[in-house]
Amino acid sequence: MPSIDLAAPRNDVLRPGLYFYAERAAFRTGRSPGLDVTGESRGCNEIWGEFLINQIETGADGSVSRLDALFVQRCESNDRPSLFGQVLYNALPLSYEYRSDAGDYIGAGQQRAFIGATSVFGVRGTVDRGVEFSVSGQREEWSVELAPVAGQPLGVGTYADAQRAAFREPGHPGLDVHGQGRGCNQLSGSFEITELEADEAGTVTALAASYVQHCEGMAPALRGSIAYHAGSPPSPTVLRKAALGKAGLLGAGAGR
């Protein structure tokens, strides 16, 4: 059975973030984090690597109760082939992705993925009034507003013919994706909610959704997907791209 040891730098604790220049956990030096993946009676004498933690929660006794992590390990030399893996233990999906067509004003033709290791997420709102999802990270901040048709509760389903949420007309659901100082005066689009959870007061606690937004009647679209304690976790490829942005690869072998 494989064994995976992830350790914070000495005299520190693990928290969401990126951990570079990892050394073999039991023998780590200075401010280096620790990593050691073993199995089938095989292990490394020396380790070069890195890992990211998207989620981690611990009990009162310090034992880990929730973990979402990704690692890359190289044995005996930094230029050796890499072992790449993911650890999920009671993890809740938590990510945001957007893809902007060329000519789309809001997304500026870019693609981005946000994960817990690099970003902070939030949800507020109720099933009656609508929900706002927010993300901050990678030098960007975004908000996505999803609102039901007036007089109807928000729930799982497809919402077509959406208008700008704050100014939607009767019979129309509301949508508004904005950030980086950019927003639409008028918009059209649609969204789909695949999972939605709320407490007894109707406050939204979990959300999985996707959207398509067109700004000012233009054809180029902004598309995105939300996973906030619901939905599917991002793929390892998306995780690696989100971890290092345009560099695109966790574990490229760069560094010491």
What does this structure look like?
This protein is mainly β. The chain folds into two domains: 3-91, no CATH class; 94-228, no CATH class. It contains one helix and 16 strands. The chain has one helix at 236-244, and strands at residues 3-7, 17-24, 34-38, 47-58, 64-75, 82-89, 94-100, 111-115, 119-126, 130-137, 140-147, 157-164, 174-179, 187-198, 204-215, 221-228. A hairpin with a 3-residue loop joins strand 9 (119-126) and strand 10. It is elongated, with a radius of gyration of 21 Å. The model has no long low-confidence stretch (mean pLDDT 92).
Key structural traits:
16 strands; 52% strand; 6-stranded mixed sheet; 1 helix; 256 residues; mainly beta; 10-stranded mixed sheet
Oligomer: single chain
Question: What percent of the residues sit in helical stretches (DSSP H or I)?
Answer: under 10%
- Looking across the biggest beta sheet, what order are the strands in? 8-7-16-15-14-12-13-11-10-9
- Please state the overall shape, judged from the principal axes of the Cα atoms: elongated
Q: Average pLDDT across residues?
A: 92
Q: What's the Cα radius of gyration?
A: 21 Å
Derived structural class = mainly beta
N-C termini distance? 30 Å
| Individual helix count | 1
Largest sheet: 10 strands, mixed
Quick rundown:
This protein has 256 residues and is mainly beta. The protein contains one helix and 16 strands.
What is the topological layout?
Layout: E1 3-7, E2 17-24, E3 34-38, E4 47-58, E5 64-75, E6 82-89, E7 94-100, E8 111-115, E9 119-126, E10 130-137, E11 140-147, E12 157-164, E13 174-179, E14 187-198, E15 204-215, E16 221-228, H1 236-244
Parallel strand pairs: 2-3, 12-13
Antiparallel strand pairs: 1-3, 2-4, 4-5, 5-6, 7-8, 7-16, 9-10, 10-11, 11-13, 12-14, 14-15, 15-16
